[in-house]
Every structure is written in C-alpha cells, then in structure tokens.
Amino acid sequence: MTIAISLKINDGLVLAADSASTVVHASSGQQAVNVINVYNNANKIFNLYKGLPIGAITWGGGSIGKASIETIVKDLRDRFSGKRNGHPSWKLDEENYTVENVAKLFREFVYDELYLAAKNSPDAPPEQPEVGFIVAGYSSHVGMAEEYVINIRADGTCQPPQLLRPIPDVGVTWAGQPDALNRLMMGYSGELPNVLMNNLGVPANQIEAVIKVIQQSLQAPVIVAPMPLQDAIELAEFMVETTIKYTRFIPGPSTVGGPIEIAAISKHEGFRWIRRKHYYSHNLNRTETHNA
C-alpha cells in the first residue's frame, strides 16, 4: 500500500510519499488477500525530465508486467530527453511544452503500450491491481502549477488524464491508503456512508448530501494559497508520517512505511529533492545530482 500526497500552493507544489511496497496473494475467486511481505524501499516520486519542473507520483500496483513502475518511468524519462532512438517526436521542447501533453504521453506509454500488452499476455494474472499516477509541474512560460491524475482501474480501463483541480486553485490530494488523512483532514472515515445507511437507516439517495454537510462542517482548512513552500513541505511530511504511524498501530500489517521521500517543484527552482533515500553511498557516486 501507499500514501501519496500532491500539495499545491501559489509558490509551487510538493510531492510526498512513503516507501512501502506490499506483496499480496489472492486465491482465485476470493476477494480477501494475504500479505506475503512488505518491503520498505520502493520509489514512488519521479522527476520526468532532468532540469524541467515536472514530476510524477504513483500509488497502487508497483509494477506492470514484470517491470517495476520505477523502471517504467525512467524509460519514459529517456524518451522525453531524446535518449531513446526511434521516438524523436517524444522529445520535449524545453521552451514549448505543456504538463497536459506530458500527462497524455505518460498515459500512452504506461497504459496503451505497456499495461494493455501485459494484460493481454498469455501468462497475465486474472486480476490486475489498480495503479494511479499524478503528473504535476509547470508548463513552459506558465506561472501556476498543474496536476493531472491518471487511474488504471482494476477492470483494466483508463480514462484520459484529468485535471486534478482548476489551475488557479490550491489544495491537497492524497491517495493510496487514505483512512488516516480522511479522518484527520475531512473529519470522517471512508466507512461512514456504510454506517449511515446500514446502522442508522439513512436512505441511500441522501448519503451524498449528508456527507457533504459533514465535510463542510468538520474538514480541516490547512491549505492557504500564500503558504510558504517550506511550510507546505513540512505539512506534506506530517501527512505521510501520520499515515505511517496510524497504520502501524491499527490491526494488520504495516503497509505504509519506510523512508519518507519529498520533492518540491517551483517555477524558478524547478524540481528539487527535499528528502530522498539512496541504496548507494554519495562518497562512491559523486556525479549524482539533485535532479536525478
């Protein structure tokens, strides 16, 4: 499981995630899954073009076919930078590109090329996990950041990238294992609709209106447009850390955990790592840069 955060303010946006990757087994025809193992070193945040203010974050399934999401996104980054022969039209023009078009190419590569091929292969498992992405950053010569969400659903469908919020707006979105932040930020658990209907007898056609009233009354107004980027970074870190500790203490395996990774994207500084894990020593790899 995962917690993935995209937090947007006037001065930029922050991507933050945990590092847990859960291996599960589901018996054929059964909805329940058994956790085989939890690894705590998965990479879920990516710079999509070194030197440009565009990045991505992922949640859900950690691979497509036999390739990890990390490897897939780095392959796509090579196309964007012109390192992949045979795809000259995919190279981004640093002076004339849009985040929307980057998101469309992202979906074309991940879903049209890779996911559908893996899904239709003879050795494909009968059920595929959902996989989600947010592609975010600044289009060339545009003053506000944009976020586009791409969801590959469990039934194998994937709609075109959707703008997460109007470009002038600010806000925060979380995905993956949302219960801790739903309770803290929104004021209620995701199970509340079932409780209202099954335990309190609220008619199904009134649930949406009831939830809307509860949300308007109880949600925590933590995002304001003029928030400094450093405070946005600290808030995103707090949200990931809260989810990690919440899942640690509730019954069941700790499926959110490992090192917290954070990247900030701003108009003038571009994509910058704030916190990042490495499986190698800086002393042995001095050519590593902050944009890698």
Q: Can you walk through the features of this model?
A:
The chain has 292 residues and is an alpha+beta fold. The protein has one domain (3-177, 223-284): 4-Layer Sandwich (Glutamine Phosphoribosylpyrophosphate, subunit 1, domain 1). Helix content is 28%, strand content 25%. The protein has a five-stranded antiparallel β-sheet with strand order 12-1-2-13-14, covered by helices on one side. Strands 5-6-9-10-11 form a five-stranded antiparallel β-sheet, covered by helices on one side. The chain starts with a strand and ends in a 17-residue tail after the last strand. The model has no long low-confidence stretch (mean pLDDT 90).
Q: What is the strand and helix layout of this fold?
A:
Elements: E1 3-9, E2 12-17, E3 21-25, E4 34-39, E5 45-47, E6 54-60, E7 63-64, E8 67-68, H1 69-81, H2 99-119, E9 131-137, E10 146-152, E11 162-163, E12 171-176, H3 179-186, H4 192-198, H5 207-218, H6 229-249, E13 261-266, E14 270-275
Antiparallel strand pairs: 1-2, 1-12, 2-13, 3-4, 5-6, 6-9, 7-8, 9-10, 10-11, 13-14
Keywords for this entry:
292 residues; 28% helix; globular; Glutamine Phosphoribosylpyrophosphate, subunit 1, domain 1; 6 helices; five-stranded antiparallel β-sheet; alpha+beta
